Amino acid sequence: MNEGLIPRRYAKALFKVAQERKVEEKIYALMTTLAESFVSTTGLSQTISNPFVPASQKIELLTIAAQASEQDSTYADFLKLLIETKRINFLRDIAIAFLAIYRKTNGIYSVKVTSAGELSAAERDRIKTIITRHLPEGSKIEYSSAVDPELLGGFVVNIDNERLDASIKNELEQLRLKLISI
């Protein structure tokens, strides 16, 4: 079975249950934290997929990774379901799929601006204004920024799956490719 299909199916099911229980915002927050934990915590994926780690420890670890509390029964029930169906290894991808479903449903765009150096407040505001004009009216933005000195100058804007590369590094690469093709 397609490994992208399994996470999407489970994410859709979780989203529907969260809507029914009116906890979709809470589950969204938990899945956001969980997805970040998979990125920042070395070995989390390996521990979750290790068959010698007891299910109870996996659930405890994933509860901590999502910063869930005892009141988050929907999340706890979902983890138990994944353990029972032997799909716990897909949790990272399920979290990412859930985030995509939630964002699409609620008109939220994930925007990341990477620049060669720190942007001033005025530059950030100007870029945010331009991005807001590019998106459909009434859209919400989850904005993040990063610094990458390898860009040499300029910036790169990622809006979901779209990318605008206005960096000097990219311009130099384009010039190099033109010179090679001559």
Description:
By secondary structure, the chain is α+β, with helices and mostly antiparallel strands. Helices cover 58% and strands 15% of the residues. It has eight helices and four strands, in the order ααααααβαβββα. The chain has helices at 5-20, 24-40, 44-49, 55-65, 73-84, 91-106, 121-134, 168-181, and strands at 108-115, 140-147, 154-159, 162-167. A four-stranded mixed β-sheet has the order 2-1-3-4. Helix 1 packs across helix 6, helix 2 crosses helix 6 and helix 4 packs antiparallel against helix 5 (73-84). The longest helix has 17 residues, at 24-40. The chain starts with a helix and ends with a helix. 19% of the residues are buried. The mean pLDDT is 91.
Q: What is the overall silhouette? A: elongated
For the CA atoms, what is the radius of gyration?
Answer: 20 Å
Report the sheet with the most strands, covering strand number, pairing sense and barrel closure: 4 strands, mixed
The number of helical elements comes to 8
Report, as a whole number of angstroms, the end-to-end distance: 47 Å
On the 0 to 100 scale, the average pLDDT is 91
Strand content: 15-25%
Q: What is the helix fraction of residues, given as a range?
A: 55-70%
- Report strand order across the widest sheet: 2-1-3-4
Structural class: alpha+beta
Order of helices and strands: HHHHHHEHEEEH
- β-strand number: 4
Uncertain stretches of 5 or more adjacent residues: none
Secondary-structure topology with pairs:
Elements: H1 5-20, H2 24-40, H3 44-49, H4 55-65, H5 73-84, H6 91-106, E1 108-115, H7 121-134, E2 140-147, E3 154-159, E4 162-167, H8 168-181
Parallel strand pairs: 1-2
Antiparallel strand pairs: 1-3, 3-4
